[in-house]
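Posting this for the archive.
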Amino acid sequence: MKLSLAEVVSEFKHNWTRVIEEKCIEQICHELDLQWRNRVLSPARTVHLLLLQVLHGNTAINHLRMFTGRDFSASAYCQARTRLPLKVMQQLLVKMSAGLRRSQQAAHLWFGRRVYLVDGSTFSMPDTDGLRNHFGQHSGQSIGCGFPMAHFVALFHAGTGMLMEVLSGSLFAHDLSQFIKLHPALRRSDIIVGDRNFCSYSHIALMCRRGVDAVLRLHSKQIVNFRPGRKYSAKLKGLPRSRWEKKLGVRDQIVTWFKPESQPLWMNANQYRLIPSTLRLREIAYDIQARGFRTRRVFLVTTLLDHKQFSAAAIANLYGHRWTIETNFRHLKITLGMDILHCKTVLGVLKEFYAFCLVYNLVRTTMLQAAKAQKCDIDRISFIDAIRWIIQACHKRNNITLRRVPKRPGRAEPRALKRRPKQFDLLNKPRYSYKLLRKFA
């Protein structure tokens, strides 16, 4: 290939990055008992081509042939991707994540602990019957007028922004029903930071059983009262459901939560039976004074009860970093282009999805290397500049000098478009019906 990922990866000192080298990919294939002939599009080369395709904006196959220097037809490449098991892509991400955990034991820690950010998002794909039946489509859209969408939950390393674990599923799957499947990847003393979707008694109890701590935002319907000795009730409206235990500071208290009477839909009966009847938790509230933020007061719940080691201000600052996961999603979906996938089969979409995850981690690796060389934080390194460097990189380059962006703490931009879209009519019925009307008009 004129452009080789092996040459780019060889510049990195991290062993966990080299899982996408040919010999490592072939080793994974052997572990999965995959057999192949000695051909141009071997499993390792197919993976590299898929990653290069994603790096170039998920470009067309005919364009892929031009800049790789390989002579293969679009049909041959599609057949090679079809033969490639989904397990290969999944194992590549698992091995990269495992290597990152080992290399980051003493770096990018918060009070000596690893912190992970969790959230859910969606991506779209072509409108086919198979994809629509598997992933689902918004109920307000008519058949033939919308697109199937998949929901996925991602676990990011807070210090580096690396994608550690990911799981995709139906559009209608709840965040918790997917995230509990990623719990085995967590280790004792890890800290999970998440929004309201992950804040429930049952979910916190499951994490406590694993020795995992959490910093979560309370649901807006949860009543929080910091008055000592105040009343509580699990049934009466207008009263907190938690029992007050101890005051730790201004808007900082220890409370007892009680097990809900009904089992959550995302939890099975055995899990519900094993969780304790009460949980001792800590509730914190802090104010946001910066202009442009919708919320003036934020309520958090955490399992970090030691207020001397973990002050309320430190926990509030930690939760403030949760918003970086939105930036990570924007880079993954908009900058790389994962917002709309191109494959028309379920397995094809999932392979494409994992290819984006691997490329995202490769870009983050480049940023991490550049941040070390320039002695700055990784969030100061330009993501798009890292993509451009990888595309243009060759084995003769030994250093990574990427553009640094200015520090912009508390930056808030409106989610609004300035450029107006073209004024075309919306597709309110299947496309073929319009063609029939024009044919017989």
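The radius of gyration is 24 Å. The chain is about 35% helix and 15% strand.
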